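B., you asked whether I could sanity-check this one before it goes into the benchmark set. Here's the sequence:
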Amino acid sequence: MKKLKIEIVSDIMCPWCIIGYKNLAAALDQLTGEIEAEISWKPFELNPNMPVEGQDLAEHLAQKYGLSEAQGIENRNRILDMGERAGFSFNFSGKRIMINSLDCHRLLTWAATEGKQTELKLAMFKAHFTDGVYLNNQETLLDVVASVGLDIERAKAILAGGEFFQQVRSEQHALQQMGITSVPTFIINEQYAITGGQPSDAFVQALKQISEQEA
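And here's what the prediction gave me:
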């Protein structure tokens, strides 16, 4: 069996990141017995200058991407459809906001040391996109941390101080130096890159090709 190291550059504010991950997971299921993957997550902030209170989603999309209300609705419908195909439920009802994800990345960096990084990342995606909770609220964020069995008091201490701040910044800088400017980006064995929320078939083909080249 071929072992691959897969680093996923991602922001939990990005719907295509969870779509891409779910399709990658489906591809790896198809390749059971052929390829084994070691998955980790790397930090990317779509909105590094976003204020703590966040911004209304529709307003943000209009301001950042120039999307009209009709285009925004079309975009959300496409994401809903792609999510359903990938096995993930998006929910855009109610007031949705876009936030800066630095604190989430700091907690995810810590979660990696506890062997729970992917669990926490998926719980954050579900909280933001399915449950519609605001992850810029500390109590809400700590609830998500607790839901995967991580220590809340330790998480509180991290949020209250500067732990993992420099590590997140260093990783982000290294990724920028590699020329990574969009998410999701899937880095395979530190030398191959797959970008975007690709369908599972595309992942199957790419992973097979990479494993053959590595062999």
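One thing to flag: Strands lie at 2-10, 35-43, 55-56, 97-98, 185-188, 192-195. Otherwise nothing jumped out at me.
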